Amino acid sequence: MARRTKAEADETRTRLLDAAEEVFFEKGVSRTSLSDIAQRAGATRGAVYWHFKDKVDVFSSMLGRVCMPFDEICDDIYCELPPLERIRRSIRNVFESISEDDRRRKVFDTAMFKMEYVGELAAVRDGHIEASRVSSAKFTNDLTRAAHELNVTLPMPADIAAQGLHALFVGLIHGWVLNGGSFPLAHTGCMSVDAYLSGLGFKNFLPPAPSTPPSPTTPA
User: Fold this and answer.
1) How confident is residue 73, by pLDDT bands cut at 50, 70 and 90?
2) What is the distance between the alpha carbons of residues 213 and 76, in angstroms, rounded to a whole number?
C-alpha cells in the first residue's frame, strides 16, 4: 500500500509539472498562478502546496526535468577526445539533442522569454550565471589545450576567445528558440562554430563544411 501511495504521489507531482510547463509557456511565469497550474493538472491548490513550496519551487523543478545547455556542454562523455574535437562534439551534441526535443524547446522558450529573473526568481538567475561561468571555463581550458597541442597561436587570449565561442553557442540557441525552431540548429550551429574556430587559427584541423543543409523542420 505504501508503495502504491508513493507512486500515486509521484504521478500527481509529474502531472503538476506537466501542467506548469504548458501554462508557463502559454501565459508566462508572472501571469501564472498556482491555481492555474492546479486547474490544468486536474488537481487542487492544496495538492500543489503538498509537493511544492511556492511558484519558484514549481518553476525550478520544471527546469530540473530537462538538461540545460550550459550543463550539457560540460558533460564528461567526450573527455577522452582531443580538446578541439571535444569542443566541436560537445556543442554539436547540445544542438542535436535540443533540436530533436520539442519539449525542451518550449521549456527554454519559457525560461528565456516568458519570465523575469528578479525578486523571488533571482536565485534561479544566479544558478544560470554560475552554470554559464563553468561552461565558459570549459571552453577556455579546451581552447588553451587545443592551441598548445596543435601549435596554434590564438589571435586573442584564450578566455576572450572562449567568451566569443560561448556567446555564439548561446546566441544560436536563443535565435532558434525565438524563431520557433525555424532553421536547422545542428547544421547552422556547427557550421558557425567551425567558422569561428577557423578564425581562431584551427582552419587546417577542421573538416570541410557540408555543402547542402537539411530542410528545416519547424516543431509543432
Assistant:
1) confident
2) 29
CA angle, corner 143, sides to 166 and 124, nearest 5?
A: 30
100/185 Cα distance (integer angstroms)? 10
Structure pTM? Answer: 0.82
> If 0-12 CB within 10 Å is exposed, 13-18 middle and 19+ buried, where does residue 88 land?
buried
Alpha helices by DSSP H, the chain: 2-27, 34-41, 45-51, 55-64, 69-73, 83-99, 102-113, 122-150, 158-178, 185-197
3: helix, strand or coil: helix
CA dihedral 72, 78, 82, 85 (to 10 degrees): -60
